[in-house]
Design a protein that fits this description.
The chain contains 13 helices and 17 strands. By secondary structure, the chain is an alpha/beta fold. It has three domains: 153 residues, 3-Layer(aba) Sandwich (Rossmann fold); 162 residues, Dihydrodipicolinate Reductase, domain 2, CATH 3.30.360.10; 84 residues, ACT domain (Alpha-Beta Plaits, 2-Layer Sandwich). The mean pLDDT is 96. It binds L-homoserine (HSE).
Length: 433
């Protein structure tokens, strides 16, 4: 039996979940793996709050650097979040040759190349299962389970807050702002929800997944991102009437050797597996050229789910320490197989287009003319009958595939027309075929 001593930096929700999980299932983990993970030291600036778990006297302190240096720590688990302090803690641990487990997607999606290089130089490693999809073991599936595959597409519902909001809008027939406020009150959404609803959290996770499988470092700034603030209840109704659900979807694709990285509110078929991923749940849908399609589903955040992934990483590290090996499978090997990114303007997609148009003769001809001149083919047009003639009415157009550049140009032209009464709204359509 190998005891592995954990130094935990950050005793918040997930940190407390880790302590609780080890107290509950530590013996079982030891029987199954031969590794007994124990919490040796915890560092957090707050040493007094009740986290709902008890730790032995002397374990909890405030000095993270002393924790890293302690001979009583075999592995450092970084759960502080944020970037600046976390980067310092992770880098210091690696320089001391100590393996690190982190759930910090923002850190890895920003400084991953630097930190993984540091890990290699110091013959140690970083495990990061909890950084994407919380408790879903999707990193392990992509790194190990699917190593025999060329990954052609990954679609991810990677943000529980956005998925919860979009799901509640549909089930409760309620507008975005109302659901967001309720979610904040219930603790499901942050007081400042920007990282989630503006798509950056999903972009961090998408960049990590792409870096994992395509042998290049991608950062969030490589991702074309659109958040969910523009999604209205009407969009959800229109999408449903056309057989779709709207999800904040990460689309990671290899097309002729180049990589597409996008995050957009996207219409996906309501009959698809991803279309059934609701509430706070996350899912990662992967197509490999050998295996075909697979999907990984579960809770993307939260105390228990995230600690499940952290414990698995600690056990992996323990097994490596026991076997006196590291980096059996390099985490982010940089290799030359794929070309670079497809620029956002060159991406090809189908689109959902919602316009607020003057209710008068010839409108459809004007709009279809602009789309046609930009080589955008219309797949369907929906305009609900309003009873009497209105000043302006919504018109929803689904298109066939076209380049983003063409759609941007068409939107610019449509917006300039005096018969358009509000800024056009454009989402993507992913048929997941
Ligand atoms: N805030 C994220 C979410 C979890 O709502 O899914 C952490 O990435």
């Amino acid at each position: 039996m190998k005891q592995i001593k954990i130094g935990l930096i950050g005793f918040g929700t997930v940190g407390a979940g880790l302590v609780e999980t080890l107290q509950k299932n530590g013996d079982l983990i030891a029987k199954r793996s031969g590794i007994l993970p124990v919490i040796s030291k915890i560092a957090d600036l707050d040493t007094t709050s009740d986290r709902g778990v008890l730790v032995p006297p002397g374990v909890l302190g405030t000095d993270a650097m002393a924790l890293i240096d302690s001979p009583e720590v075999d592995v450092v688990v970084e759960l502080v979040g944020g970037i600046t302090a976390a980067r310092k803690f992770v880098a210091t641990a690696l320089k001391r040759g100590k393996p690190v487990v982190t759930a910090n997607k923002a850190l890895l999606a920003t400084y991953g190349d630097e930190l993984f290089a540091l890990a290699r130089e110091n013959r140690t490693e970083i495990y990061f299962e909890a950084s994407v999809g919380g408790g879903i073991p999707c990193i392990k599936a992509l790194r190990e389970g699917l190593i025999g595959n060329r990954i052609t597409e990954i679609y991810g519902i990677l943000n529980g807050t956005c998925n919860y909001i979009l799901s509640c809008m549909e089930t409760d027939n309620t507008d975005f702002q109302v659901v967001l406020k309720a979610a904040q009150k219930a603790g499901y959404a942050e007081a400042n929800p920007s990282m989630d609803v503006d798509g950056l959290d999903t972009a961090h996770k998408a960049a990590l997944l792409a870096s994992l499988v395509y042998g290049k470092w991608f950062t969030a700034s490589d991702v074309d991102v659109q958040g969910i603030r523009e999604v209205t209840l009407n969009d959800i109704h229109y999408a449903a009437s056309l057989g779709y659900r709207i999800k904040l979807l990460a689309a990671i694709k290899e097309i002729d050797g180049s990589i597409q990285l996008s995050v957009h509110p996207s219409l996906i078929p309501e009959t698809s597996l991803l279309g059934h991923v609701n509430g706070v749940f996350n899912a990662v849908w992967v197509r490999g050229d050998v295996v075909g399609t697979t999907m990984y589903y579960g809770r993307g955040a939260g105390r228990e789910a995230t600690s499940s992934a952290v414990v698995a990483d600690v056990v992996d590290i323990g097994l490596n320490l026991l076997g006196k090996c590291s980096n059996r499978l390099p985490a982010f090997p940089v290799f030359d197989e794929y070309k670079g990114l497809i620029s956002a303007a060159e991406v090809v997609s189908r689109y959902y287009l919602r316009l607020q148009v003057a209710d008068r003769p010839g409108m459809l001809a004007i709009i279809s003319g602009i789309l046609g001149r930009n080589q955008i083919s219309i797949a369907s047009v929906t305009q609900k009958e309003e009873g009497s003639q209105q000043a302006a009415v919504p018109m929803v157009i689904l298109t066939h595939k076209a380049k983003v550049a063409a759609m941007n140009k068409a939107i610019e032209e449509i917006s300039r027309d005096e018969c358009i009464h509000a800024a056009p709204v454009v989402f993507r359509i992913e048929d997941l075929g």
